[in-house]
């Protein structure tokens, strides 16, 4: 069915994203069409120039509000996939081990990837992703020396 009063509701980064958004809206019950940009205008050696290459998603004017709600949800989910630690568990503690004194310390997950002062020895330490830290070479220690410093 053709749109009676077509309105652009989404400017996609590329033709694939435009088709995915169109399919998402159609699956949710909003009739949508993706307009792929197949012209060579705006293409250079590193890809497409933004705002010249404009694949778009169109819906009928009567469906704009419903499409806007769905697109907000779509963009929120997309942001969660790009930055999972910023939306869920940003304040959950993670453990990092100081390379100087060997003592474990807890930091907020939002501090992951930063350099902090060790609360035990005062030296600077990297707060790394606990799943990426190689601790297999460490034997199970009781960290009595860490408790004594506190």
Comma- or semicolon-separated keywords:
three-stranded antiparallel beta sheet; 28% helix; Alpha-Beta Plaits; 2 domains; 150 residues; alpha+beta; two-stranded antiparallel sheet
Give helix % range.
25-40%
Mean pLDDT: 76
- What spatial order of strands do you see in the largest sheet? 1-5-2
Instruction: Give the radius of gyration.
Output: 25 Å
Work out the helix count: 4
Question: What's the assembly state of these chains?
Answer: single chain
| SS strand fraction | 15-25%
Major sheet description: 3 strands, antiparallel
CATH topology term of the largest domain: Alpha-Beta Plaits
Report what the structure shows.
- With 150 residues, the protein is an alpha+beta fold.
- The chain folds into two domains: 6-82, Alpha-Beta Plaits (2-Layer Sandwich); 93-149, no CATH class.
- It has helices at residues 15-27, 64-82, 84-87, 144-149; strands at 6-11, 32-35, 43-44, 47-48, 56-60, 93-97, 104-108, 114-117, 124-127.
- Strands 1-5-2 form a three-stranded antiparallel sheet.
- A hairpin with a 6-residue loop joins strand 8 (114-117) and strand 9.
- The longest helix is centred in the middle third of the chain and has 19 residues, at 64-82.
- The protein starts with 5 loop residues before the first strand and ends with a helix.
- Mean pLDDT is 76; it is low at 135-142.
């Amino acid at each position: 069915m053709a749109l009676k009063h077509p309105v652009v509701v989404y400017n996609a980064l590329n033709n694939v994203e435009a088709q995915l958004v169109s399919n998402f809206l159609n699956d949710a019950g909003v009739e949508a069409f993706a307009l792929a940009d197949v012209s060579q205008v705006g293409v250079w050696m590193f890809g497409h120039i933004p705002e010249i290459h404009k694949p778009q998603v169109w819906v009928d004017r009567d469906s704009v509000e419903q499409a806007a709600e769905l697109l907000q949800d779509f963009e929120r989910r997309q942001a969660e996939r790009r930055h999972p630690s910023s939306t869920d568990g940003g304040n959950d503690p993670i453990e990092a081990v100081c390379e100087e004194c060997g003592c474990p310390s807890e930091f907020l997950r939002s501090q992951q990837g930063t350099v902090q002062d060790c609360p035990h020895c005062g030296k600077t330490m990297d707060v790394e992703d606990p799943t990426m830290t190689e601790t297999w070479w460490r034997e199970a220690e009781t960290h009595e020396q860490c408790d004594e410093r506190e």
